[in-house]
C-alpha cells in the first residue's frame, strides 16, 4: 500500500489525545503487551490507564499503522458516546481500515518521513 518506504518511525514517549496525556510504551516482545492474555499483539490501547503499548520489532510502516490504530481507539474512548454506540467488531474493522489509510496518507505526503 505504501509507495515510499519509511526508513524509521520513532515512537514518542507520550501522545496527547483530546487533551489527555497517554503514555506510549515500546515492547520488543509482542506477547508482553498484555501479560494476562499472553497473545501476540501489535499494539494495545488501555484508555482507562491513558496508556498505549506498541510492539516495536516490526517494519516502520507497520509500527506507524499500529500506533495510529491505537490512537484511534483512544480517540473513540475520549469521544464519549461514539465508543459505546458502535459494536466492538465494527469498531475494530473501522479502526484498522482508518489507521491504514491515515498512515498511507501521512507517508505519501511526507508528513511522517524522518
Ligand atoms: Zn484494535
Structure in words:
- By secondary structure, this protein is α+β, with helices and mostly antiparallel strands.
- 39% of the residues lie in helices and 18% in strands.
- It is built from three helices and four strands; from the N terminus they run ββββααα.
- It has a four-stranded mixed β-sheet, with helices on one face.
- Strand 3 (43-46) and strand 4 form a beta hairpin.
- The longest helix has 21 residues, at 88-108.
- The protein is globular and about 35 Å long.
- Bound molecules: zinc ion.
- Zinc ion (ZN) is lined by residues 69, 73, 92, 95.
Summarize the model shown:
This protein has 114 residues and is an alpha+beta fold.
Defining key terms:
114 residues; alpha+beta; Arc Repressor Mutant, subunit A; four-stranded mixed beta sheet; 3 helices; globular; binds zinc ion
Give the helix/strand layout.
Blueprint: E1 14-17, E2 20-27, E3 43-46, E4 51-55, H1 60-78, H2 82-85, H3 88-108
The structure holds zinc ion.
Zinc ion binds next to α1 and α3.
Amino acid at each position: 500500500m505504501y509507495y515510499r518506504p519509511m526508513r524509521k518511525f520513532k515512537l514518542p514517549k507520550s501522545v496527547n489525545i483530546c487533551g489527555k496525556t497517554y503514555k506510549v510504551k515500546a515492547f520488543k516482545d509482542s506477547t508482553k503487551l498484555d501479560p494476562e492474555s499472553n497473545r501476540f499483539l501489535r499494539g494495545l490501547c488501555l484508555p482507562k490507564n491513558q496508556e498505549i503499548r506498541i510492539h516495536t520489532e516490526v517494519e516502520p510502516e507497520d509500527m506507524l499503522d499500529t500506533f495510529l490504530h491505537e490512537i484511534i481507539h483512544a480517540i473513540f474512548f475520549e469521544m464519549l458516546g461514539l465508543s459505546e454506540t458502535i459494536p466492538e467488531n465494527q469498531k475494530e474493522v473501522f479502526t484498522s481500515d482508518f489507521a491504514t489509510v491515515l498512515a498511507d496518507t501521512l507517508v505519501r505526503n511526507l508528513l511522517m518521513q524522518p
